[in-house]
Design brief:
219 residues; alpha/beta; 43% helix
């Protein structure tokens, strides 16, 4: 299957599940995850009309996205991977949305950079729903307090929560937990679901899904 057909297949599957769940058309955004793919693999997806993309690493994104953004208006670039504080200046300069705010140190560094650069990014707090020691993210029990601190003290625009459920568990309960936390925090957006489970995520209220291999193929 060509990349254009795979993109269309993913979009149709998102729309079908959203319709079954009585959700409005267009209520779920697709973040096409282009990490590890070069610009020539990404361009056909842009040519199909896709405008929202996700990258895992700042340095890799710097090598391809400035030129791609220059060629096409309306690209929205999301950082979905972990961020080191020494990369915060580069991240704020390049990305439009950062989905991986997961600790106070990085939140403060991002707030400082937004002020310095005069940029108004949107942010998601990453929640470690499975409490996995090797995985980034805020403890679910601390999420509401952390979101309040980011908003009130640091003046960050926290528009949603993000999670990556444990690979060997049913993702449904993790998506349900994230939706519950979002209500408690008063945030509207839920970034959850990847190539293997995005349809389940849509059923549980995802407002964006992060899909890479189902569009671009295996890396």
């Amino acid at each position: 299957m060509e990349i254009e057909a795979r993109l269309e297949d993913v979009l149709q599957r998102i729309a079908a599940v959203a319709e079954q769940a009585d959700r409005k058309p267009g209520s779920v955004s697709l973040v096409a995850v282009s990490k590890t793919f070069e610009a020539d693999a990404i361009q056909p997806v842009i040519d199909c009309g896709q405008r929202v993309f996700g990258e895992n690493r700042v340095q890799e994104a710097q090598g391809k996205w400035p030129a791609l953004k220059e060629k096409t208006e309306g690209i929205e670039l999301h950082l979905i991977g972990p961020l080191q504080s020494n990369k915060s200046a580069d991240a704020v300069a390049l990305f439009d949305v950062i989905q991986s705010v997961d600790r106070e140190k990085i939140a403060r560094a991002l707030a400082d950079e937004c002020q310095k650069q005069g940029r108004a990014l949107r942010f998601y707090v990453q929640v470690n729903t499975g409490l996995e020691p090797q995985k980034a993210g805020i403890d679910p029990r601390e999420t509401a307090t952390f979101v309040t601190m980011c908003r009130d003290e640091l003046k960050l625009t926290i528009e949603g929560l993000m999670c990556i459920p444990p690979a060997d568990e049913n993702p449904g309960p993790h998506f349900a937990l994230l939706a519950k936390l979002a209500k408690e925090c008063g945030v509207q957006k839920l970034s959850m679901g990847m190539s293997g489970d995005f349809e389940t995520a849509v059923e549980f209220g995802a407002t964006s899904v992060r899909v890479g291999s189902a569009i671009f193929g295996t890396r």
